[in-house]
Write a structure and sequence with these properties.
The protein has about 290 residues and is mostly beta strands. About 0% of the residues lie in helices and about 55% in strands. Strand 22 and strand 23 form a beta hairpin.
């Protein structure tokens, strides 16, 4: 896969300005295009982030799906807005992942994952993750019901991954990759506080380590660390965000200001680096392989 899509948000952008974007980057040709400027006015502009920009992106069928605030957006490959889906239990939406014809979306304000069926155009299932005195557990709920889970962000969930084994979710305070096998929640791998974008890959876990300012691939026998470039304009500290696997040994990571790096876990080399913007307020939120021919 030589093309990736990158979503971003512009922190503290005022109403009327672009507060998010989607970029396409050709990793082989080195060409980049800003294909969508997001200026939607009817969002929450409070704080540095609020409802600005996009937080997650996944491709399923002939549609690109992006999350933001309390909404899931359906776009054509040319980024024409097709539909907007809402749910009372989708709040502070983050990561999106496509699996087996369905989408899984993180609701960070509820420490929950919602499943969306594009064929039916509705959210069909939800799972809130709870870690309290009773232990770590998952509580299923019906997103279509009038009563459901209350707000909780103790885990600060931001990422979701699904395959035949089940669901894998994680967040800045989950302290590990959390695995739901259909019966219960397990923490097979511990991760540092502040880890984001975590997902299983091969025999390990790929994640962004914010305290270390690096993307890491952690396996039972290796800890492969790829330091993010330091941007002096962004307080001198790297701010990693977004990860995508693009081959058996290669993955893409992002950092501020809108910088994308291609890494090889076998050679331990950062093979390519692309700077798409110099704006220190524009933050990468998601990276995903782009299957369409625009």
């Amino acid at each position: 896969m030589s093309i990736v899509a990158i979503t971003s948000l512009t922190r503290a952008a005022p109403p009327g300005d672009s507060h998010g974007a989607v970029h396409l980057l050709d990793l082989e040709g080195g060409r980049a295009a800003r294909v969508l400027d997001w200026r939607r006015p009817d969002i929450d502009f409070s704080g540095a982030r609020g409802g600005r920009g996009f937080s997650g992106l996944a491709c399923l069928g002939d549609t690109a799906w992006a999350s933001s605030g309390d909404e899931l957006f359906a776009f054509s490959p040319a980024f024409e807005l097709l539909e907007v889906y809402r749910n009372p239990y989708l709040e502070a939406a983050r990561g999106v992942y496509a699996h087996d014809g369905e989408l899984y979306v993180v609701s960070s304000a509820l420490d929950a994952v919602l499943r969306f069926d594009p064929a039916e155009g509705r959210f069909t299932w939800g799972l809130q993750l709870v870690d309290d005195d009773a232990g770590l557990r998952g509580v299923p709920f019906d997103p279509g019901a009038t009563t459901g889970p209350s707000r909780s962000s103790a885990l600060k969930l931001d990422s979701v991954f699904a395959d035949a084994r089940g669901l894998f979710v994680a967040g800045a305070l989950s302290l590990g990759l959390l695995y739901f096998d259909g019966r219960g929640i397990h923490r097979p791998v511990t991760l540092p506080e502040g880890a984001t974008d975590a997902r299983p890959w091969a025999d390990g876990v790929l994640f962004n380590d914010h305290d270390a300012g690096a993307a890491r691939f952690l396996t039972p026998s290796h800890n492969r660390v790829f330091a993010a470039p330091v941007d002096p304009a962004a307080d001198g500290n790297p701010h990693p965000g977004g990860l995508a696997v693009i081959g058996p040994n290669r993955f893409v990571s992002g950092t501020t200001p809108l910088t994308v790096c291609v890494h090889n876990v076998e050679t331990m080399q950062t093979e390519q680096r692309y700077i798409l913007s110099e704006d220190p307020n524009e933050t990468i939120t998601a990276i995903t392989p782009w299957p369409f021919k625009n």
